[in-house]
Amino acid sequence: MESNTSDNLQKAVSSFKDYEEYLDSKVTPMDLFFLTSKESARKLVEHGHKGTVLSRQEFEQRKAASASATRDHRNRTTTLASSGCDIRDNFLKELAQREEANRTGKMTSLIFIRDVNAAGQEVSGYIDYAHRLQMQDFAPYFSGRKKLVPGPRDLCYYNWTNQATASTSSSNYDVVYDRPRALLFRRKTDGGILNVDPRVHPGQGVRRSAVPSGLYEHVVILDHDSARTRTAV
Question: Residue 34's domain spans which residues?
Fold first, then answer.
């Protein structure tokens, strides 16, 4: 019985935007009539004159616990496109290993690919993996039915055959041209810069990996570990 009461209280807390909204839910029209001020009515409720009421600290703790439980549930129920696929290529195996982290926000990976598109044209560019996972079904890529190549809607795209270029910001990154031929990406979460120049360090919390592949001419993956960056800060 006590457990059910606690669970119900937890659900109730999660439905309120903040502590003030929680207090407002316990204020009656009669309170406002006699006290004339919503702030005074809130203080009356908060100090327990209307029965058992959570303190601000208790409310915030329960609110945080509810948010954490929601995140954990979302992480556990994330459906992976790579699940059950017979993945042979090393690059696709690397993507499969990063899929869950990119779907849940633990990591954002930028993929550089240089290869030939379906029209036989040599293309190269940078793909925001987490963004593409949100926009496309990746099962055909992992199963080998479809080939992942950069396009004009990705972060950066260049067609070596017709010299067409394009750059488009994603849900995670803005494209920044610092100076001629200097391509940078700025994270929208913390403003951090990711430098794709192989001659310099890619940035705080970023790891660059050249990935051998039997399907692609050239592949590089740059991973930003969100948790590692928060720890460093």
Answer: 2-76
Cβ atoms of 89 and 70 within 8 Å: the answer is no
Q: Strand 122-128's sheet: what is its strand order?
A: 165-167, 156-159, 122-128, 107-116, 218-225, 206-210
Best-predicted range by mean pLDDT (51-60, 201-210, 222-231): 201-210
User: Is residue 2's pLDDT more than 60?
Assistant: no
pTM of the model: 0.66
Domains in the chain, number? 2
Q: Which residue reads 């970023």 in tokens? A: 206
Residues 11 and 40 in one domain: yes
Take residue 95 and report the two structure tokens written for it.
Answer: 């993507």
Residues 95, 228, 138: CA angle, nearest 5 degrees:
20
Mean pLDDT of 208-222: 96
Residue 108, amino acid: T
Q: Quick check: 196 and 112 in contact, CB under 8 A?
A: yes
3-state secondary structure of 58: helix
> What local confidence, expressed as pLDDT, does residue 27 receive?
75
The answer to whether residue 72 sits within a structural domain is yes
Domain assignment present for 82: no
* Cα 31 from Cα 176, distance rounded (Å): 55
Q: What is the pLDDT of residues 146-160, one digit of tens each?
A: 999 999 999 999 999
The rounded distance, in Å, linking the Cα atoms of 157 and 165 is 6
Instruction: Mention every residue, 6+ apart, whose C-beta is less than 8 A from residue 180.
Output: none
Do both 94 and 72 map to the same domain? no
- Tens of pLDDT, residue by residue over 109-161, are 999 999 999 899 999 999 999 999 999 999 999 999 999 999 999 999 999 99
